[in-house]
Amino acid sequence: MAFIDLKQTKTHSMEFGGMTVEVVEVPRGEPETSLKGFWQNIQKASLSIIKGMKVTLWYLVHPSTVVTQQYPENRLELKMFERYRSQLRLARNEEGEHLCNGCDVCEQICPNGSIKAYSRKNSATKKKEIDRLVWRWDICTFCNFCVFACPHGALEMTGNFESAVYDRRLLIYNLNAYAGPPAKELKKLSPEEKKRAMEPRDAYSGQVPMAGATLPGITTLGQSQGDARYVG
Predict the structure, then answer these.
(1) In this structure, are residues 184 and 153 in contact, taking their beta carbons and an 8 Å threshold?
(2) Which residues lie closer than 8 Å to 141 by C-beta, 6 or more apart?
(3) Do residues 40 and 122 share a domain?
């Protein structure tokens, strides 16, 4: 290996392409051929390798701090980090009442149409309320726009990352467990009125493929494409 002695550099001018340019001349030193220099190079290379393997060696002697997740063996206690975004859900209070009033801001802000709000007017309160809030997990980009845009804080992203299914249609479902007013409106009603105001909604009912609804690129329930085993 030859070494460069920067202290012995020289600068001079040369004609290049009709122009005068400054050129730095760097003389090369003689390569180290002695046995002492050979062992010095071995030492430097070894130290460089040790520095590069510092993190690996540290985890080697501290096995309790290993961060590799043994999935799926640890699926019961596995928790994703706080800022991880995956499955969308409606925020609910302790009594299971959602905060959505069917304003459809989430639908308007969604960049790829993965959420659709079907609202209605309550016959008693004459106010708008959610009927079905359909979410498409199959095309959602998890941009979090709907969560930020919701004026009532009715939506939230969870850390549930398991979305493997045998049928794509299972990834399109209703987020709301009931159709009716939000929690703040339900507080104004008596227990009997509240019960009447909350109509149960199944996850796969209404305007979803599993209930027979037609969506672009999605095969509805009962259809097939050449093979009875086909799933959308």
Answers:
(1) no
(2) 111, 112, 114
(3) no
> Which one is predicted more confidently, 99 or 1?
99
Q: How many CB atoms lie within 10 A of CB 167?
A: 13
Q: Identify the three-state secondary structure at position 109.
A: helix
The domain boundary, picked from 61, 79, 97, lies at: 61
pLDDT of residue 106: 95
Q: How confident is the model at residue 33 (pLDDT cuts 50, 70, 90)?
A: low
pLDDT for residue 225:
44
User: Using alpha carbons only, what angle is made at residue 116 by residues 182 and 211, rounded to the nearest 5 degrees?
Assistant: 100
pLDDT above 50 for 232: no
Question: Would you say residue 227 has pLDDT above 60?
Answer: no
- Residue 120 corresponds to which tokens in the numbers above? 């209605």
36 and 100 co-located in one domain: no
Residue numbers of the domain that contains 46: 6-61
Tens of pLDDT, residue by residue over 117-134, are: 999 988 777 789 999 999
Report how many domains make up the chain.
Answer: 2
Which amino acid belongs to residue 79?
K
Instruction: Annotate 88-103 with b (16+ C-beta within 10 A) or e (fewer).
Output: bebebeeeebbbbbbb
- Amino acid at residue number 39: W
CA–CA dist 113, 125 (Å, integer): 30
